[in-house]
């Protein structure tokens, strides 16, 4: 049995296919249920963000489990398996831990060292836990990843300056226009990304912020924090007609703004340009909208290029981050393998001790107390000597394919039931 991660990110697959592989909150319960209905997957967590879709599992057998994950992604994305399977990456056990620790530390993000990813990792685990599809293995892994992410940020300089996708989006808008001073801005949505952008706008000198959201109550709370206004989603077109910038990062699974809708809006404001920064995955704005006169459309691909320029000053921290991650992986594997092996070792000792005591009881009154004591001591010493070597090898091999084979054989040969 192994902990495995299988996934894609924006660097490993074309953006259109990547967007279809994204798993939103609406589809998440069904995906988790499909995964753990497999005979070869006993635990599952889905981490789907603007930069990655990754599925973490406890796999009984790697190849069948990989096939189940691949097929689940195909069903829920509508993509043909062959269109994305070669773009999938997979890691198991220590490498899976190292990958997740790197993700939680911001090493695998479009914005190096981003801080938002740590909360996204925690949220992904919490949702799987609520769905009842995680157990000891993934609980240990995700708990350790959050610890690693916090240690990295506390002991290195990876989190200096712009370290969130939402803040980078605002910085990119500022760079594109030269300044946001005096600009009127619409933020579409009031979720985590939109909230991050709205808060970042507060200090950018904007003239007006309008938060347009399906749920007015949630938007109102955010608007109050930044001194902004709110508008219902039905008024989005009229709001866009009167702003200089549109920032969007919702979790919708379909386009929020079509090419034709935006063309009509721009026709109503022929002499006024509009900058759109769309960091949603899947995208909120039709990519073809960038061809409309007066519209500048920037998306996650543009953000990745923009953020690359800011990586240089933090790039020197990468080795320090990797050193922390390596230490945390060693610590995690030591704890994890011990926790996997010790229940089996204890159960095996209980089995053989029960057999020893049963044989001792069979002596009954045929021996005196002194003889019984000598037999008890001799059989106990004999068992300890017989078990010392196999138990030592089992512990030393824990977490390796050899250790897994030894543990499975021991469990099967002695019919050991673990709690």
Key words describing this protein structure:
single chain; 419 residues; alpha/beta; Beta Polymerase, domain 2; Rossmann fold; 3 domains; six-stranded parallel sheet; four-stranded antiparallel sheet; 17 helices; 10 strands; 13% strand
Radius of gyration: 28 Å
Q: Please give the alpha-carbon distance between the first and last residues.
A: 17 Å
Tell me the domain tally: 3
The neighbouring-strand order within the major sheet is 7-6-5-8-9-10
The biggest sheet amounts to:
6 strands, parallel
Which regions have little confidence, pLDDT < 50, spanning 5+ residues? none
Overall CATH architecture of the largest domain: 2-Layer Sandwich
Give the CATH class of the largest domain. Alpha Beta
User: Could you name the CATH homologous superfamily of the largest domain?
Assistant: Glutamyl-tRNA reductase, N-terminal domain
CATH level-3 fold name of the largest domain: Beta Polymerase, domain 2
Task: Return the structural class.
Answer: alpha/beta
Q: What is the count of DSSP helices, taking H or I runs of 4+ residues?
A: 17
Helix/strand order, N-terminal first: EHHEEHHEHHHHEHEHEHEHEEHHHHH
In short:
With 419 residues, the protein is of the alpha/beta class. It has helices at residues 15-21, 28-36, 62-77, 81-84, 94-105, 116-130, 136-155, 165-177, 192-202, 216-226, 236-240, 259-267, 300-309, 312-315, 318-362, 369-396, 401-413, and strands spanning 2-9, 41-48, 52-59, 89-92, 184-188, 208-213, 229-232, 245-248, 274-278, 295-298. A six-stranded parallel β-sheet has the order 7-6-5-8-9-10.
């Amino acid at each position: 049995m192994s902990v495995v991660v299988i996934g894609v990110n924006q660097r490993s697959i074309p953006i259109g296919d990547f967007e279809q592989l994204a798993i939103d909150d609406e589809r998440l319960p069904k995906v988790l249920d499909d995964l753990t209905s497999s005979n070869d997957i006993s635990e599952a967590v889905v981490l789907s963000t603007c930069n990655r879709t990754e599925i973490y599992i406890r796999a009984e057998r790697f190849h069948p489990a990989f096939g189940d994950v691949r097929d689940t992604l195909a069903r829920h994305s509508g993509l043909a398996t062959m269109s994305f399977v070669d773009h999938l990456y997979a890691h198991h056990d220590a490498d899976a831990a190292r990958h997740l620790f790197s993700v939680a530390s911001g090493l695998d993000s479009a914005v190096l060292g981003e801080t938002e990813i740590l909360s996204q990792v925690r949220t992904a685990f919490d949702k799987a836990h609520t769905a009842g599809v995680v157990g000891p293995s993934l609980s240990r892994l995700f708990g350790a990843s959050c610890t690693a992410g916090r240690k990295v940020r506390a002991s290195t300089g990876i989190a200096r300056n712009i370290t969130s996708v939402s803040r980078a989006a605002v910085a990119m808008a500022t760079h594109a226009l030269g300044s946001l001073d005096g600009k009127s801005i619409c933020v579409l949505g009031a979720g985590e990304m939109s909230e991050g952008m709205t808060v970042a706008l507060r200090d950018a000198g904007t003239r007006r912020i309008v938060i347009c959201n399906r749920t007015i109550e949630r938007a109102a709370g955010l608007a109050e924090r930044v001194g902004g206004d709110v508008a219902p989603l039905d008024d989005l077109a009229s709001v866009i007609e009167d702003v200089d910038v549109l920032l969007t990062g919702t979790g919708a699974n379909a386009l929020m703004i079509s090419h034709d809708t935006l063309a009509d809006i721009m026709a109503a404001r022929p002499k006024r340009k509009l900058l759109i920064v769309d960091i949603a995955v899947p995208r909120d704005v039709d990519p073809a909208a960038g061809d409309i006169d007066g519209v500048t459309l920037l998306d996650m691909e543009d953000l990745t290029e923009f953020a690359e320029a800011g990586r240089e000053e933090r790039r020197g921290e990468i080795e320090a981050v990797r050193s922390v991650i390596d230490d945390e992986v060693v610590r995690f594997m030591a704890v994890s393998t011990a926790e996997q092996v010790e229940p089996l070792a204890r159960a095996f000792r209980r089995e053989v001790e029960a057999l020893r005591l049963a044989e001792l009881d069979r002596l009954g009154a045929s021996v005196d107390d002194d003889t019984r004591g000598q037999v008890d001591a001799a059989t106990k010493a004999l068992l300890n000597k017989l078990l010392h070597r196999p138990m030592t090898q089992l512990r030393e091999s824990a977490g390796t394919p050899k250790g897994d084979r030894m543990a499975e054989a021991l469990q099967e040969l002695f019919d050991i039931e673990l709690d």
